[in-house]
Amino acid sequence: MAKHLRIIGIVQGVGYRAGFDAQARSLGLAGWVRNRRDGSVEAMVCGEHHALEKIITWAHRGPMMARVDQVNVEEVDDVVVDSDRFDIRATE
């Protein structure tokens, strides 16, 4: 199961990617997270349904310094990610 997330708000420069990475790893998820040039954060996460629900819940909250205004979540069918790792990618 895979989800594509776009997180909008004050989510850059506040530790959002590092926090998302830590949460995803603790939940056993694979995928990646990165900043977008428009100021949002984007993530692709793959794993068990319950773990995906937990990371989505965390995404709405984020780290203490973040202000999350919106989280867009899309289910993804054809995803290619390294099935046993999670990465922080460069800004795109």
Number of helices: 2
The count of strands amounts to: 5
Largest sheet: 5 strands, mixed
Question: Which strand order do you get reading across the main beta sheet?
Answer: 4-1-3-2-5
User: Low-confidence parts, pLDDT < 50 over ≥5 residues?
Assistant: none
In terms of DSSP E residues, the strand content is: 35-45%
User: What percent of residues adopt helix (DSSP H or I)?
Assistant: 25-40%
> H/E series, N to C?
EHEEHEE
Counting helices, strands and paired strands, the structural category is alpha+beta
Shape: globular
Structural Rg: 12 Å
Mean pLDDT, nearest integer? 94
Report on this model:
With 92 residues, the chain is an alpha+beta fold. It has two helices and five strands, in the order βαββαββ. The chain has a five-stranded mixed beta sheet, covered by helices on one side. A hairpin with a 5-residue loop joins strand 2 and strand 3 (41-46). The model has no long low-confidence stretch (mean pLDDT 94).
Care to give the gist of this entry?
With 92 residues, this protein is α+β, with helices and mostly antiparallel strands. The chain contains 2 helices and 5 strands.
Which features would summarize this protein structure in a list?
alpha+beta, 2 helices, about 90 residues, five-stranded mixed sheet, 5 strands
